[in-house]
């Protein structure tokens, strides 16, 4: 049996498991039934050939046919939920995890020695669908448990999602609720944030995480940016109990940090870049094979060609998180069809379910898939 090439970029980790129990892609061996992957070329024509089965797959699954049974849908949902319980440990996660560990250890040393030092923070930026929320959720759960195991309590990290649109007053109220101290809306913002600082100290919170942090300054006015950056710096420089700030959000988050150089210098930054189809297609196929192994589905040859990996990356708008969703959607379709294999037809149907696009705008159907804007839905060749 031929050993596969290992890229070391992705590994699937069961959520909550120790890293030594990772189910790494690199340990897999290639099945003798699988042929070597081919680059774009002759194999692409088999995908591009708009045969009747492709046209059928690009229509709704129940068009002109019977509706799937509830039992089948329930079983498929349960099996996909199990797959979603795995975290994809990727190369971009390493600087994020290392950055947080360094901040946490510095803060713990200060506590142990009785020193009061300004806290630092960590900012994670990337386009929508890059996988930021999954990465930060996994990291904070992992680190929160580690801190709890070391005797620092179970509330060392407070995490909340910033609403849109947001006001500093409302965010302060949300933080107080998360700290177990709900307060009415009739209080002034300055009073609310004084209470936030007090309860952060009382609960011995080390870090506050704000997801979708770009919405802290959604209007982008100078006054709003000044207020947001001032509030974040106040928490980090509290003379009695400084708190580290973790921010995650889209690339607009970078504007908040760049607005105030004092805040920016206190933050470590990580950016999840977009994927390149040419550079990451083989890695995405590695991930697809691992998911197939966990899903107990045999991948067919047409989903193991390099061209298919490029199609997945493009269909995901070059975003890592969306690529994972597409793979899981295709696996779900295979379950709903009662299959024991995963094929390109599952990706065709899964993409159609997500977008309701005509076959001409389905990246898993047409030969010139790079022309398709994968962020568009309801695309039609002839709109009426």
UniProtKB/TrEMBL annotation:
<keyword id="KW-0067">ATP-binding</keyword>
<protein>
    <submittedName>
        <fullName>ATP-binding protein</fullName>
    </submittedName>
</protein>
<dbReference type="InterPro" id="IPR008868">
    <property type="entry name" value="TniB"/>
</dbReference>
<dbReference type="InterPro" id="IPR027417">
    <property type="entry name" value="P-loop_NTPase"/>
</dbReference>
<dbReference type="Pfam" id="PF05621">
    <property type="entry name" value="TniB"/>
</dbReference>
<dbReference type="GO" id="GO:0005524">
    <property type="term" value="F:ATP binding"/>
</dbReference>
<keyword id="KW-0547">Nucleotide-binding</keyword>
């Amino acid at each position: 049996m031929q050993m596969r090439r290992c890229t070391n970029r992705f590994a699937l980790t069961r959520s909550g498991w120790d890293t030594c129990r990772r189910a790494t892609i690199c340990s897999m061996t290639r099945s003798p039934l699988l042929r070597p992957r081919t680059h774009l070329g002759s194999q692409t024509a088999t995908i591009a050939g708009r045969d009747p089965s492709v046209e059928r797959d690009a229509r709704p699954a129940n068009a002109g046919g019977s509706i799937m049974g509830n039992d089948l849908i329930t079983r498929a949902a349960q099996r996909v939920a199990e797959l979603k319980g795995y975290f994809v440990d990727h190369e971009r996660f390493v600087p994020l995890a290392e950055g947080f560990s360094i901040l946490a250890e510095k803060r713990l040393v200060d506590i142990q020695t009785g020193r009061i030092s300004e806290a630092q923070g960590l900012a994670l930026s990337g386009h929508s669908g890059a996988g930021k929320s999954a990465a930060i959720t996994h990291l904070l759960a992992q680190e929160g448990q580690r801190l709890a195991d070391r005797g620092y309590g179970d509330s060392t990290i407070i995490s909340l999602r910033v609403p849109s649109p947001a006001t500093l007053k409302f965010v302060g109220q949300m933080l107080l609720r998360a700290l177990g101290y709900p307060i009415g809306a009739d209080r002034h913002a300055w009073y609310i944030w004084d209470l936030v600082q007090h309860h952060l100290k009382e609960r011995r919170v080390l870090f506050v995480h704000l997801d979708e942090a770009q919405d802290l300054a959604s209007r982008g006015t100078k006054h709003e940016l000044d207020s947001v950056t001032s509030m974040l710096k106040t928490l980090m420089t509290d003379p009695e109990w400084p708190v580290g700030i973790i921010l995650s959000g889209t690339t607009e988050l970078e504007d908040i940090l760049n607005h105030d150089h004092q805040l920016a210098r206190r933050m470590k930054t990580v950016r999840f870049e977009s994927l390149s189809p040419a550079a990451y297609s083989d890695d995405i196929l590695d991930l697809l094979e691992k998911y197939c192994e966990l899903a107990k589905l045999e991948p067919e040859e047409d989903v193991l060609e390099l061209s298919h990996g490029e199609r997945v990356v493009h269909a995901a708008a070059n975003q890592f998180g969306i690529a994972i969703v597409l793979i899981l959607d295709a696996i779900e379709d295979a379950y709903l069809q009662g299959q024991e294999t995963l094929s390109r037809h599952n990706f065709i149907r899964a993409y159609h379910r997500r977008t309701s696009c005509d076959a001409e705008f389905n990246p898993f159907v047409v030969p010139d898939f790079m022309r398709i804007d994968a962020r568009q839905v309801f695309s039609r060749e002839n709109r009426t």
